[in-house]
Amino acid sequence: MSTPLLEASGIGQRFGALVVLEGVDFQLATGESVGVVGPNGAGKTTLLSILAGSIRPTSGRVRYEGNDVTSLRADRRCRLGIARTHQIPRPFIGMTVFENVLVGALLGATDRRTTAYERVVDVLETCGLVDVANRRAADLGLLDRKRVELARALATDPKVVFLDEIGGGLTDSEAIELVGTIKELRRREIAIIWIEHIVHVLVQAIDRLICLDAGKIIADGLPDDVLADTAVIDAYLGAAVT
Q1: Domain boundaries, the chain
Q2: What is the pLDDT of residues 39-52, one digit of tens each?
Protein backbone atom coordinates (compact mmCIF):
# COMPACT_ATOMS: atom_id res chain seq x y z
CA MET A 1 0.00 0.00 0.00
CA SER A 2 1.42 3.40 -0.99
CA THR A 3 2.18 6.04 1.63
CA PRO A 4 -0.58 8.67 1.92
CA LEU A 5 0.35 12.17 0.86
CA LEU A 6 -1.11 13.54 4.09
CA GLU A 7 -2.21 11.73 7.22
CA ALA A 8 -3.85 12.97 10.42
CA SER A 9 -3.77 10.61 13.41
CA GLY A 10 -5.66 11.18 16.65
CA ILE A 11 -5.88 14.94 16.17
CA GLY A 12 -7.30 16.70 19.21
CA GLN A 13 -7.54 20.40 19.96
CA ARG A 14 -8.56 22.12 23.18
CA PHE A 15 -8.75 25.82 23.97
CA GLY A 16 -8.94 25.80 27.75
CA ALA A 17 -11.97 23.70 28.69
CA LEU A 18 -13.38 23.89 25.15
CA VAL A 19 -12.87 20.72 23.12
CA VAL A 20 -12.78 21.69 19.42
CA LEU A 21 -11.44 18.46 17.88
CA GLU A 22 -11.27 14.97 19.32
CA GLY A 23 -9.64 11.87 17.84
CA VAL A 24 -9.71 12.95 14.18
CA ASP A 25 -8.13 10.42 11.81
CA PHE A 26 -8.02 10.52 8.02
CA GLN A 27 -5.74 10.13 5.03
CA LEU A 28 -5.36 12.07 1.79
CA ALA A 29 -3.90 10.45 -1.31
CA THR A 30 -1.86 12.20 -4.00
CA GLY A 31 -4.21 14.01 -6.37
CA GLU A 32 -7.30 13.24 -4.28
CA SER A 33 -10.00 15.87 -3.75
CA VAL A 34 -11.80 15.77 -0.40
CA GLY A 35 -14.67 18.00 0.71
CA VAL A 36 -15.35 18.82 4.35
CA VAL A 37 -18.79 19.85 5.60
CA GLY A 38 -20.41 20.28 8.98
CA PRO A 39 -22.29 22.77 11.12
CA ASN A 40 -20.71 25.98 12.38
CA GLY A 41 -18.43 25.22 15.31
CA ALA A 42 -17.73 21.66 14.15
CA GLY A 43 -13.96 22.30 14.07
CA LYS A 44 -13.48 22.44 10.30
CA THR A 45 -11.28 25.55 10.07
CA THR A 46 -9.34 24.53 13.18
CA LEU A 47 -8.53 21.21 11.51
CA LEU A 48 -7.37 23.01 8.37
CA SER A 49 -5.17 25.31 10.46
CA ILE A 50 -3.59 22.31 12.17
CA LEU A 51 -2.89 20.61 8.84
CA ALA A 52 -1.41 23.83 7.43
CA GLY A 53 0.76 24.42 10.50
CA SER A 54 -0.69 27.66 11.86
CA ILE A 55 -2.01 25.83 14.96
CA ARG A 56 -0.23 23.01 16.76
CA PRO A 57 -2.64 20.31 17.96
CA THR A 58 -3.11 19.49 21.61
CA SER A 59 -2.79 15.83 20.71
CA GLY A 60 -2.16 13.67 17.66
CA ARG A 61 0.25 13.79 14.72
CA VAL A 62 0.31 15.13 11.17
CA ARG A 63 2.41 13.30 8.58
CA TYR A 64 3.23 14.54 5.09
CA GLU A 65 4.84 12.24 2.54
CA GLY A 66 5.54 9.84 5.40
CA ASN A 67 7.33 12.43 7.57
CA ASP A 68 6.09 13.81 10.86
CA VAL A 69 5.46 17.56 10.33
CA THR A 70 3.43 18.19 13.50
CA SER A 71 6.00 20.62 14.89
CA LEU A 72 6.72 22.45 11.60
CA ARG A 73 5.50 26.02 11.15
CA ALA A 74 3.19 26.97 8.29
CA ASP A 75 5.97 28.64 6.27
CA ARG A 76 8.13 25.51 6.37
CA ARG A 77 5.18 23.33 5.36
CA CYS A 78 4.52 25.72 2.49
CA ARG A 79 8.01 25.13 1.14
CA LEU A 80 7.36 21.38 1.32
CA GLY A 81 4.27 21.74 -0.86
CA ILE A 82 1.37 22.53 1.52
CA ALA A 83 -0.66 25.66 0.73
CA ARG A 84 -3.96 27.11 1.94
CA THR A 85 -6.47 29.85 1.29
CA HIS A 86 -8.54 31.71 3.87
CA GLN A 87 -12.28 32.27 4.03
CA ILE A 88 -11.75 36.04 4.00
CA PRO A 89 -9.17 36.87 1.29
CA ARG A 90 -5.97 38.44 2.59
CA PRO A 91 -4.34 40.15 -0.39
CA PHE A 92 -1.60 42.75 -0.05
CA ILE A 93 -3.94 45.56 -0.99
CA GLY A 94 -1.22 48.03 -1.98
CA MET A 95 0.26 45.58 -4.50
CA THR A 96 -0.95 44.62 -7.95
CA VAL A 97 -2.43 41.20 -8.65
CA PHE A 98 0.83 40.17 -10.35
CA GLU A 99 2.89 41.27 -7.35
CA ASN A 100 0.59 39.41 -4.93
CA VAL A 101 1.03 36.17 -6.85
CA LEU A 102 4.77 36.76 -7.23
CA VAL A 103 5.11 36.85 -3.44
CA GLY A 104 3.73 33.33 -3.31
CA ALA A 105 6.08 32.13 -6.04
CA LEU A 106 9.15 33.64 -4.37
CA LEU A 107 8.35 32.44 -0.85
CA GLY A 108 7.08 28.99 -1.77
CA ALA A 109 8.80 26.07 -3.43
CA THR A 110 10.21 28.11 -6.33
CA ASP A 111 13.67 29.44 -5.56
CA ARG A 112 14.77 31.09 -8.83
CA ARG A 113 13.35 34.47 -9.87
CA THR A 114 13.10 33.58 -13.57
CA THR A 115 11.19 30.40 -12.71
CA ALA A 116 8.99 32.38 -10.33
CA TYR A 117 7.96 34.83 -13.06
CA GLU A 118 7.10 31.96 -15.40
CA ARG A 119 5.01 30.34 -12.67
CA VAL A 120 3.13 33.57 -11.96
CA VAL A 121 2.12 33.88 -15.61
CA ASP A 122 0.89 30.27 -15.65
CA VAL A 123 -1.08 30.73 -12.42
CA LEU A 124 -2.67 33.99 -13.61
CA GLU A 125 -3.89 32.18 -16.72
CA THR A 126 -5.18 29.23 -14.71
CA CYS A 127 -7.13 31.47 -12.32
CA GLY A 128 -8.50 33.83 -14.96
CA LEU A 129 -6.58 36.86 -13.70
CA VAL A 130 -4.56 37.91 -16.76
CA ASP A 131 -6.86 40.84 -17.55
CA VAL A 132 -6.48 42.29 -14.04
CA ALA A 133 -2.81 41.41 -13.49
CA ASN A 134 -1.76 45.08 -13.23
CA ARG A 135 -4.66 46.24 -11.07
CA ARG A 136 -4.17 46.89 -7.36
CA ALA A 137 -5.72 44.22 -5.16
CA ALA A 138 -7.55 46.98 -3.26
CA ASP A 139 -9.61 47.71 -6.38
CA LEU A 140 -10.86 44.16 -6.94
CA GLY A 141 -14.32 42.77 -6.28
CA LEU A 142 -14.83 39.75 -4.05
CA LEU A 143 -14.68 37.12 -6.81
CA ASP A 144 -11.32 38.39 -8.10
CA ARG A 145 -10.00 38.66 -4.54
CA LYS A 146 -10.91 35.01 -4.05
CA ARG A 147 -9.10 34.20 -7.28
CA VAL A 148 -6.00 36.09 -6.09
CA GLU A 149 -6.13 34.16 -2.80
CA LEU A 150 -6.17 30.89 -4.74
CA ALA A 151 -3.55 32.07 -7.24
CA ARG A 152 -1.13 33.06 -4.51
CA ALA A 153 -1.47 29.60 -2.96
CA LEU A 154 -0.94 27.90 -6.32
CA ALA A 155 2.14 30.02 -7.01
CA THR A 156 3.94 28.23 -4.18
CA ASP A 157 3.91 25.08 -6.37
CA PRO A 158 1.93 22.95 -3.91
CA LYS A 159 1.18 19.24 -3.85
CA VAL A 160 -1.86 19.86 -1.65
CA VAL A 161 -4.09 22.93 -1.29
CA PHE A 162 -6.50 23.61 1.57
CA LEU A 163 -9.51 25.71 0.56
CA ASP A 164 -11.44 27.34 3.42
CA GLU A 165 -14.91 28.30 2.14
CA ILE A 166 -13.56 29.79 -1.05
CA GLY A 167 -17.18 30.08 -2.22
CA GLY A 168 -18.25 32.06 0.86
CA GLY A 169 -19.95 35.36 0.03
CA LEU A 170 -20.19 34.58 -3.68
CA THR A 171 -23.33 34.08 -5.72
CA ASP A 172 -24.01 30.58 -7.03
CA SER A 173 -22.87 31.56 -10.51
CA GLU A 174 -19.62 33.06 -9.17
CA ALA A 175 -18.93 29.99 -7.04
CA ILE A 176 -19.52 27.74 -10.04
CA GLU A 177 -16.94 29.80 -12.00
CA LEU A 178 -14.35 28.82 -9.40
CA VAL A 179 -15.23 25.14 -9.78
CA GLY A 180 -13.66 25.15 -13.25
CA THR A 181 -10.36 26.34 -11.79
CA ILE A 182 -10.51 23.78 -9.00
CA LYS A 183 -11.14 21.01 -11.52
CA GLU A 184 -7.98 22.15 -13.31
CA LEU A 185 -6.05 21.53 -10.08
CA ARG A 186 -7.35 18.00 -10.08
CA ARG A 187 -6.15 17.51 -13.66
CA ARG A 188 -2.72 18.58 -12.47
CA GLU A 189 -2.93 16.00 -9.65
CA ILE A 190 -2.83 18.62 -6.90
CA ALA A 191 -4.59 17.19 -3.86
CA ILE A 192 -7.36 19.30 -2.34
CA ILE A 193 -9.13 19.55 1.00
CA TRP A 194 -12.06 21.94 0.59
CA ILE A 195 -14.32 23.22 3.37
CA GLU A 196 -17.53 24.58 1.89
CA HIS A 197 -21.15 25.27 2.87
CA ILE A 198 -22.38 25.49 -0.73
CA VAL A 199 -22.74 21.73 -0.96
CA HIS A 200 -24.12 21.47 -4.50
CA VAL A 201 -21.06 23.39 -5.74
CA LEU A 202 -18.63 21.42 -3.60
CA VAL A 203 -19.74 17.99 -4.85
CA GLN A 204 -18.94 18.98 -8.45
CA ALA A 205 -15.20 18.91 -7.71
CA ILE A 206 -14.52 16.24 -5.08
CA ASP A 207 -13.89 12.50 -4.92
CA ARG A 208 -14.73 12.05 -1.26
CA LEU A 209 -16.72 13.85 1.43
CA ILE A 210 -16.13 14.12 5.17
CA CYS A 211 -18.65 15.47 7.68
CA LEU A 212 -17.47 16.86 11.01
CA ASP A 213 -19.76 17.43 13.98
CA ALA A 214 -18.72 18.54 17.46
CA GLY A 215 -15.07 17.94 16.63
CA LYS A 216 -15.48 14.38 15.36
CA ILE A 217 -15.77 12.80 11.91
CA ILE A 218 -19.27 11.32 11.69
CA ALA A 219 -19.11 10.27 8.01
CA ASP A 220 -16.38 9.72 5.43
CA GLY A 221 -16.99 8.29 1.96
CA LEU A 222 -18.42 8.91 -1.47
CA PRO A 223 -20.30 12.24 -1.60
CA ASP A 224 -23.71 10.72 -2.36
CA ASP A 225 -23.34 8.18 0.45
CA VAL A 226 -22.31 10.81 3.00
CA LEU A 227 -25.13 13.18 2.02
CA ALA A 228 -27.62 10.34 2.45
CA ASP A 229 -26.27 9.37 5.88
CA THR A 230 -28.92 9.95 8.55
CA ALA A 231 -26.31 11.22 11.04
CA VAL A 232 -25.17 13.86 8.52
CA ILE A 233 -28.76 14.87 7.74
CA ASP A 234 -29.55 15.23 11.45
CA ALA A 235 -26.35 17.12 12.30
CA TYR A 236 -25.97 19.37 9.27
CA LEU A 237 -28.22 19.09 6.25
CA GLY A 238 -31.68 19.07 7.78
CA ALA A 239 -34.46 18.28 5.36
CA ALA A 240 -32.66 19.24 2.15
CA VAL A 241 -29.23 19.64 0.63
CA THR A 242 -28.49 23.29 -0.26
Answers
A1: 1-81+160-242, 90-157
A2: 999 999 999 999 99
